[in-house]
Amino acid sequence: MNGKTNAVRLVEQAGIPCREAFYEFDENDLNGMHAAEALRMPPEQVFKTLVARGERTGINVFCIPVCCELDLKKAAKAAGDKNMELIAVKELLPLTGYIRGGCSPVGMKKKYPTYLDETCILWEEIAVSAGARGHQLILNPEALARLVSAELADIIV
Predict the structure, then answer these.
(1) Is residue 26 a part of any domain in this protein?
(2) Beta strands in 66-150 (DSSP E)
(3) For 21, which of 48, 50, 120, 136 could close a Cys bridge (C-beta 3.0–4.6 Å)?
(4) Mean pLDDT over residues 40-68, rounded?
(5) What pLDDT does 31 receive?
(6) Closest alpha carbon to 104 in 142, 134, 69
(7) Domain assignment present for 22
(8) Cα–Cα distance between 74 and 143 in angstroms, integer?
(9) How far is 88 from 23, CA to CA, in rounded Å?
(10) What is the CATH number of the domain that holds 85?
(11) CA geometry: angle 50, 52, 55, nearest 5 deg
């Protein structure tokens, strides 16, 4: 294996230009703000991937800037559901194939409905997890949205 994560391989196979960035992380502090600082990028440009369960729609994926919080009411509305709640951390690996702090919207075990906060279009490129802690993928947000069939939505507080 060449050391590339599945997410990076999938982006490259799709012909999407991307860069990888690596940074030191602390197991006890997996805050996305740390990633933004380490990457020397504005926190509004670095996106975290959250997984939630809708009452009717089941599992949904939301990508939002690391400095923001997911608005569960807006998330539910975007997904066409009444209620949405974040899944428990212990469910993350079995559902997505990723661990906390390394969850990428690219290459999950199953294809879940995915929503990218609409602020992503303010940037030529955004950073998302490459599927491992301390490893980010930097790419065009519209290309990412096409790759994962994400809808752009107003989903932050």
Answers:
(1) yes
(2) 84-86, 114-117, 126-132, 135-139
(3) 136
(4) 98
(5) 85
(6) 134
(7) yes
(8) 23
(9) 26
(10) 3.90.960.10
(11) 165
Structure tokens at 53: 């369960």
The range of the structural domain enclosing residue 75 comes to: 6-153
pLDDT value at 58 more than 50 = yes
* 1 in a structural domain: no
Count of domains for the chain: 1
pLDDT at position 24 over 50: yes
d(CA 25, CA 44): 19
33 within a domain of the structure (yes/no): yes
Using only the alpha carbons of the chain, give its radius of gyration: 14
Mind listing the pLDDT tens digit for each residue in 90-144? 999 999 999 999 999 999 999 999 999 999 999 999 999 999 999 999 999 999 9
Q: pLDDT digit string (tens) for 26-41?
A: 887 788 899 999 999 9
Tokens describing residue 23 = 């940074």
For 135, residues 6+ apart whose C-beta sits below 8 A from its C-beta are 5, 20, 21, 22, 102, 129
